Amino acid sequence: MLDINQIMKILPHRHPFLMVDRILEIEVGKRIVGLKNVTINEPFFPGHFPGHPVMPGVLIIEAMAQVAGILAYQSDESVRDKVTYFTGIDNARFRKPVMPGDQLRFEIEATGCKRGIWFFNAKALVDGKVVTEAELKATFADKQS
After folding, report:
1. Measured between alpha carbons, how far is 96 from 113 in angstroms, rounded to an integer?
2. What percent of the chain has pLDDT over 70?
């Protein structure tokens, strides 16, 4: 289990773009489970949408990618000093709106790594029901100075 302080030692993201509050489970090289508590204080809610706050789907995908990045960083020492880049998002589906008060549970499975590209199956759930799912691809590159 990783708390927010440990997560911030792994990911370069910071407020307001850090989208993971806690990691509950990690099976190195295989799978990871993370959480995000969605509150009305999120900076995107005033504009998305006034009077009917809904978390943007693209930010749910970003949160899933951050959790997947933690799995990769914990699984492969060679990527720990690198920056993560998305290379693909396939078959994204948004099944139900995510609202303030929801707790997102991210279940990410690493399905392979080929020529430096990591592949993940990702799901976001609220109350045990899938709200978002996608196939994610990412690579790692040296940080630019």
Report:
1. 30
2. 99
Contact yes or no for 92/24 (Cβ under 8 A): no
Q: Sign (positive/negative) of CA torsion 34, 82, 111, 121?
A: positive
Distances 134 to 13, 91, 124, 142, 145 between C-alpha atoms, Å: 21, 5, 9, 26, 32
The verdict on whether omega for the bond into residue 53 sits within 30 degrees of 0, i.e. cis, is: no
Condensed to tens digits (0 to 9), the pLDDT of residues 10-63 reads: 999 999 999 999 999 999 999 999 999 999 999 999 999 999 999 999 999 999
> In the structure encoding, which two tokens stand for residue 39, read together?
């509150």
Taking the C-alpha atoms of residue 62 and residue 140, their distance in angstroms, rounded to an integer, is 16
Contact 118, 72 (CB under 8 A): yes
CA atoms within 13 A on the CB side of 64: 32
CATH architecture label of 4-142: Roll (3.10)
- Residue 39: strand, helix, or coil: coil
Please write the tens of the pLDDT for every residue from 80-121.
889 999 999 999 999 999 999 999 999 999 999 999 999 999
The catalytic residue positions are 48
